[in-house]
Specification:
WD40_rpt; transcription; 6-stranded antiparallel beta sheet; 16 helices; WD repeat; transcription regulation
């Protein structure tokens, strides 16, 4: 790496606020303060990077200088094509510059090598304009101002304004365009970052948490999208009192990672324009990543690669003032930075340091894989362009874009009743482990305390003391990013010194749901050392088989043959170590093995306290158990206790009295849970026995075994729905549900290529782990399968198989949702089926699906609905997708017409068939009946 600081690049010793490299790389522009006005200067890049060119007086250094702005220029940005340059200033104006072929110079400029003139002046802001961003393909340009607004300008028809986006309550200091073109992001002094949809330029998401401690200490807040569109990195954020550059993931808009290390506020961040690739040093496999530069008020600059956990380089005291802007060359390894002290620095990297840019073809293939569109040619926008619209009703929707359906809205409405949800699985963090949750009751309670247990060797183990559940709780999946994180826990911690204890699995259990946190994240996230564990699986059984006397034996043959038999187990049960506490609503249950010493052996003590006011922590009851408890579950009515001797106890949560007699299993229980309505209790034992009891009827509901699905894995999660449908997630990422009617296990997640492709390419919206509302989606989201490598997709350009695979996947999803009685998800997958058919379907397949839902005009009412949803409603959902594709307009009109006529004809026939008739009326109504049938025919 080389650092160059050309002294001749300056604005007469005035501050330079912005810098941007031309897409061609042969020039760059600077914007800032002039002698008595705002100044924009276009410089030649060759003298900066070449000493010979710098000494050659025939090569111009300054190409053009424009002093048209009446006040300081805050930002300059080249268009993607490089034909236009946009500048904004404190004079409330935005100027669009274009190179002219004729002679003469710009107004107010000296004789220059190039001639640029202002082709448009954009007036719309009522205050200083601070930042600019061109959209992909140069269709629009976004500007942000101190007037608290962001304006979208039509770059094809300057100075036309498309939208004025209002929502910020402070100065908007930064704006960035999603490289995919779907969103615009803006950051303001009001301590928020807002994401706007480009489809109608409405507010889509507001991010506040990382900026709550920030102050208005920077002149600008230049944020940046990664070139693959997966990450948005903001400027000035705070974490634990220290300045950071916040990472916001596109998947769920999570904010659990950031870039740390700068001592003062981050002013600007800028991603390299290319997706980079290189061979990984250890595995020698091709890896793809992005490169980011971060500038700060502490006068230092850092460069990060997303493939590394530490910065690639950090340069301190690069300038005498704050770094105000950064710019990467599009196809090279040059980084330019400018400062408030009026100087510019150039950093030259090598291909060995940064990597090789992904080719345009591979990049477009990656966009096609990730977003279903080509970044240069929007295939969806071109489809059906030349089709003739035959029906006037379809004219209004002919320009509408076909979009994939979304199952889960971005913000779920509050659900008043308590529903079972999977507790949040915290990401292991370098400094501390954060366990956050909220109760599903109407009045939420704060997290009280955690117990931190220190063993003799100095290691720590944190036991959560109060983790209530929420129906809308989001569970962050194990991320694959390599960013460093500095999130810190804000929970109060109580420390307890204990004697050394054997390692035990760390689990989080509440509201009848048992989650092995470490088992679910062991293969997909890097665990903190104190959270790592080795799952204990019973040793294999060795069996000895005597030799066959009829077969001749050789001299070296052993007398007996030994083979190894691996028993099929679902896991290893271990006694709970130390005090284990669960909280649900107003109740807190504590289990302590070995709490009471007797002459017959130690006893386990179970205590239930009431947390509600006015007497918090009032003890309701306690009891003792003769065998150590290995698993327990809690519901609003009952407590389930499972011991190492295989015994199971159901107790009333109000008084501790037994609900059922003590029952015994052939092996200890490893998982226990309740349904959300407290009616069903379920357990899973070591030897794969699965049982579900109906506590209201006090009878067995389901008795089965999961040996067929276990193999060499072990169970990490058990859940049972209100309808008695069990779900099991295995350590290898596979998941299954059991159909009592079919007496078989149904596959909900596996390494099957069709299922991997289907789950990776269908978007269901925001990640919401809600097992009651979305059981299938929630279970399928728990997977430690690594995401598909973009390189593997690029290596196989043949994508003809994708629609066939997607159709198989979607139709199977419909059948699973129907079997587990999930009408909401079934309706969603019918909508997804319509989306896939509208895009890639054939007329034969479309008619087959529509005919199945339309049914015969003489069908009975019993088969006219699925899970309570009328088939005609599902038919309308599919037709709503087909109507957006002009090539299917005739099919849409045909079936829409049949659907409109169907209810009247059907009701008339039903009246004739079902209405009680007298003897004198039969002959009179027969002709009417025949006439109706003829009409239908």
């Amino acid at each position: 790496m080389k650092i160059l600081q050309p002294a001749w690049v300056h604005h007469d010793e005035k501050a330079i606020f912005s810098i941007d490299i031309h897409p061609g790389g042969e020039k760059f522009a600077t914007g800032g303060q002039g002698n008595d006005s705002g100044r924009v200067v276009i410089w030649n890049m060759a003298p900066v990077i070449s000493e010979e060119a710098e000494k050659n007086k025939q090569i111009p250094r300054m190409l053009c200088q424009m002093d048209n702005h009446l006040a300081c220029v805050n930002c300059v940005r080249w268009s993607g094509s490089g034909t236009m340059l946009a500048s904004c200033a404190d004079d409330k104006l935005i100027m669009i510059w274009k190179k002219t072929a004729g002679g003469g110079s710009a107004f107010g400029s000296a004789k220059t090598a190039e001639h640029w003139r202002c082709i448009a002046t954009l007036r719309g802001h009522s205050g200083d304009v601070l930042d600019l961003a061109w959209s992909p393909q140069d269709q629009y340009i976004a500007s942000s101002s101190v007037d608290n607004t962001v304006i979208i300008w039509d770059a094809k028809e300057f100075p036309s304004i498309l939208q004025v986006m209002k929502g910020h309550t402070g100065l908007v200091k930064g704006v960035a365009w999603d490289p995919v073109g779907k969103f615009v992001a803006s950051q303001s002094d009001d301590k928020t970052l807002k994401i706007w949809k480009t489809s109608n330029f409405s507010l889509f998401k507001t991010v506040t948490e990382p900026f709550e401690e920030c102050g208005g200490t920077t002149h600008i807040l230049r944020l940046s999208w990664s070139p693959d569109g997966q990450y948005l990195v903001s400027a000035h954020a705070m974490n634990g009192g220290g300045p950071t550059a916040q990472i916001i993931e596109r998947d769920g808009w999570k904010c659990d990672k950031d870039f740390v290390g700068h001592r003062k506020a981050v002013t600007c961040v800028r991603f390299h324009n290319a997706i980079l690739q290189r061979m990984a040093p250890k595995t020698n496999k091709s890896q793809q990543y992005c490169c980011l530069a971060v500038g700060s008020r502490d006068k230092s600059l850092s460069v990060w690669l997303t493939a590394l956990q530490r910065p690639l380089v950090v340069i301190h005291d690069l300038f005498q003032d704050s770094i105000l802007d950064l710019s990467w060359s599009h196809n090279g390894y040059i980084l330019l930075a400018c400062s408030g002290d009026g100087h510019v620095a150039c950093l030259q990297f090598s291909a060995e340091e940064l990597g090789t840019p992904l080719s345009e073809e591979d990049r477009n293939s990656l966009y096609q894989r990730m977003y279903g569109k080509n970044i240069t040619v929007d295939l969806n926008g071109q489809s059906g362009k030349d089709s003739l619209i035959e029906n006037a009703e379809l004219l209004n929707v002919s320009q509408s874009k076909l979009t994939a359906p979304t199952l889960i809205p971005q913000q779920l409405p509050p659900i008043p009743s308590q529903l079972p949800t999977v507790s949040s699985i915290p990401q292991p963090l370098p400094q501390s482990t954060v366990l956050k949750s909220s109760t599903s009751q109407e009045t939420q309670r704060p997290i009280l305390k955690q117990i931190e247990t220190k063993t003799a060797d100095g290691k720590r183990r944190i036991t959560p003391m109060f983790i209530p559940l929420n129906d809308e709780a989001e569970v962050p999946t194990a991320g694959t990013g390599q960013f460093s994180s500095s999130s810190a826990s804000k929970s109060s911690i109580m420390t307890v010194e204990t004697r050394p204890e054997p390692p035990t699995p760390s689990t989080s259990k509440a509201n009848g749901i048992d989650i092995d946190i470490e088992a679910l994240t062991a293969q997909t996230a890097k665990l903190d050392s104190r959270l790592k564990k080795v799952t204990k699986i019973p040793p294999p059984v060795r069996a000895t088989i005597p030799p066959d006397p009829e077969k001749p034996s050789t001299q070296h043959s052993p007398e007996r043959t030994s083979i190894t038999i691996h028993p099929v187990v679902s896991g290893k049960a271990t006694p709970i170590q130390g005090p284990s506490v669960k909280a649900l609503g107003d109740y807190r249950i504590q289990v302590v093995n070995g709490a009471v010493k007797t002459g017959y052996g130690p006893l386990c003590r179970v205590t239930v306290n009431l947390l509600s006011l006015p007497r918090p922590d009032k003890k309701l009851w306690d009891t003792v158990i003769g065998s150590p408890v290995s698993s327990f579950a809690v519901s609003k009515k009952y407590v389930l206790l499972a011991s190492m001797d295989g015994s199971i106890r159901f107790l009333d949560i109000l008084n501790g009295s037994p609900v059922l007699p003590v029952m015994s299993m052939t092996s200890p229980v490893i998982h226990s849970t309740f349904s959300s309505d407290c009616r069903l209790g379920a357990i899973l034992t070591e030897n794969c026995t699965l049982r579900v009891w109906d506590l209201n009827e006090q009878s067995i509901f389901l008795n089965g075994s999961c040996q067929d699905i276990m193999g060499t894995s072990f169970a990490t999660l058990l859940h049972v729905s209100d309808q008695g449908v069990p779900f099991i997630i295995l350590s290898n990422g596979s998941s299954f549900t059991y159909s009592k009617k079919l007496e078989s296990w149904l596959i909900t997640n596996s390494m099957d290529p069709i299922m991997r492709h289907g789950l990776m390419t269908t978007k269901v919206g925001a990640v919401a782990r809600n097992l009651k509302a979305f059981p299938l989606t929630t279970v399928q989201s728990f997977s430690n399968f690594q995401p598909l490598n973009a390189r593997s997709f690029l290596d196989n350009p043949n994508v003809a198989w994708q629609f066939e695979a997607m159709l198989v996947f979607v139709e199977n999803q419909i059948k699973i949702a129907e079997t587990i009685n999930s009408p909401t998800e079934m309706k969603h997958w019918y909508l997804m089926l319509g989306y896939q058919l509208a895009q890639h379907g054939t007329e034969t397949k479309i008619r087959q699906v529509l005919d199945g839902l339309l049914g015969s005009p003489f069908h009975s009412g019993s088969d006219s609905s699925i899970l309570g949803i009328p088939k005609h409603t599902l038919l309308e959902e599919i037709l709503s997708q087909l109507r957006l594709q002009p090539k299917w307009q005739r099919i849409y009109m045909e079936y829409s017409d049949q659907l409109k006529r169907r209810p009247q004809s059907q009701s008339s026939i039903d009246d004739v068939v079902m209405k009680p008739l007298g003897d004198g009326q039969i002959e009179k109504l027969k002709p009417l009946n025949l006439e109706l049938l003829a009409d239908e025919t």
